[in-house]
Predict the structure.
Amino acid sequence: MPKTSALAPAASFSTLERDAVYKAIFTRRDVRDQFLPDPVPDDVLRRLLEAAHHAPSVGFLQPWNFITIRSQAVRDRVASAFGRANDEAAAMFPEERQSAYKSLKLEGIRKAPLNICVTCDRDRGGAVVLGRTHNASMDLYSTVCAVQNLWLAARAEGIGMGWVSIFRDADLKAILGIPERIEIVAYLCLGFVDELYERPELEVKGWNRRLPLDELIFEEKWRGGN
Amino acid sequence: MPKTSALAPAASFSTLERDAVYKAIFTRRDVRDQFLPDPVPDDVLRRLLEAAHHAPSVGFLQPWNFITIRSQAVRDRVASAFGRANDEAAAMFPEERQSAYKSLKLEGIRKAPLNICVTCDRDRGGAVVLGRTHNASMDLYSTVCAVQNLWLAARAEGIGMGWVSIFRDADLKAILGIPERIEIVAYLCLGFVDELYERPELEVKGWNRRLPLDELIFEEKWRGGN
């Protein structure tokens, strides 16, 4: 008999458990260079993907796929695709920011022993999906929730993760054999870490500063200009 | 003197701490009806918003704003906007699914004592943003990561959360005074809970089933058809 699964008392969190969730949230970093070469064991990878798979999804659609990449040859090709796109990206910045931009290491594709490409199958639920009727992006957003679950689970496992977004989609699709109709949501680099930045790397390196949270919170309605 | 903040030993997670992170991930639910009326204290709300604010963001852009809504009058107007959109949504489903759709409670706008609208300011970083040069959606995705952080922190605080996506944007913008150029990413309902579904509500109610994770994982490249 399948377990009847309905409402049950909500498990409470001890202070230590609650603090552990915040610890994952506040010490999570977008890692580009601190990856150790040790392989990520299969059972750990499985836990990370289970965490991703238990993200919320619009209409319980679970629109994601996960392509795990360990092959050096594949990662070399992906790194080359990044390099081409990053040269294009650098050229888009105003002259005075270009050298700062070029000094940043923005990916760990070759250094991280494990890469994961996370995709969204926009046709999985058919044309009409519960909760996507008025916001066509909800399936993409569900997939992003899976990425963030994976990121926090990785942090708790001692694994750093970085999200690389500087690619031409067509390049990645050609390398990974991803069909045209499938949307790439994230390309992730993962590996064990023994050091992390205490604050976000782009803050430490002076690219941007932390915004004061108070200025981002409005009560009851939007405040300020258009 | 500001603290110099650079690389430091990565804090490790004890087994109990790691399990707490997974507990948040695996017992998180999209709550629509189990909200208790107790107000969410300001210090708890602050922790939730700090968690959201510490999400990863492309180029360290922090493109989000949070509109907190407790007013009954405002929530009544939002609930009406949901109702109109949900009638439209129901009509989009094939005849045989319409009664099932209509039987689902898909929001807790009035029942949850706290609502939060999460928005993305797409102009915050100027036209050229590090990491958004080749994927224009990255600022929206950063904002979704903030939502997922908030969701998991809420779970650890004993607070249930539901994401309501069935609105016409123009309705929500009119009610909350949100400028045209600002993108609404999520409308969230929050409140303490003492009961939760053991499995996703849409699975329990037979709307959709859990997909086997093995079928969603590919190694080295996409597998299967186009």
